[in-house]
Design brief:
Order of helices and strands: EEEEEEEEEEE
Structural class: mainly beta
Shape: globular
Number of helices: 0
Largest sheet: 5 strands, antiparallel
Number of strands: 11
Strand content: over 45%
Length: 133
């Protein structure tokens, strides 16, 4: 039960999304219904293939929420991955970030991925991990 990811097959906030270069993008998987999950969901960003992040680079995973699925606003939770003085390599399946979805989250949630430098290579998947209760 523990150290396993419980997820909906084929449901992604981002699927094989190329990491942006010194910019930000909304996940290519759209939004999911996350309202009323009572804090039982975490959003995970994992390498879909090998990811190479240059030295002293930040990769930011954020969540945006909406009650009507038309206007999304940033939620007050994010995860920043900051690399050290060397290039950081993540193998396929390695977890880069994990965020909780708040119990008072809006009905619809999507992800935003940002970076502060160029030279990032690779793609990521962003998906939900449902916590056992």
């Amino acid at each position: 039960m523990y150290k396993h990811t419980l997820r909906v097959n084929g449901e992604y906030l981002a699927k094989a999304q190329t990491l942006p270069s010194n910019s930000g993008v909304v996940g290519n998987g759209g939004s999911i219904k996350a309202g009323s999950t009572m804090g039982a969901v975490e959003v995970v960003m994992a390498a879909a293939d090998e990811v190479s992040i240059p030295a002293e680079t930040q990769v930011l995973l954020q969540l945006e929420g909406s009650d009507d699925k038309s206007v999304f606003t940033l939620m007050p939770v994010n995860h920043v991955v900051t690399t050290s003085a060397d290039v950081t390599i993540y193998k396929e399946g390695d977890e880069l970030a994990r965020l909780p979805v708040a119990s008072n989250a809006p009905k619809h949630v999507r992800c935003r991925i940002s970076t502060n430098k160029t030279g990032i290579v690779g793609t990521v998947d962003v998906f939900c991990d449902f916590l056992p209760r």
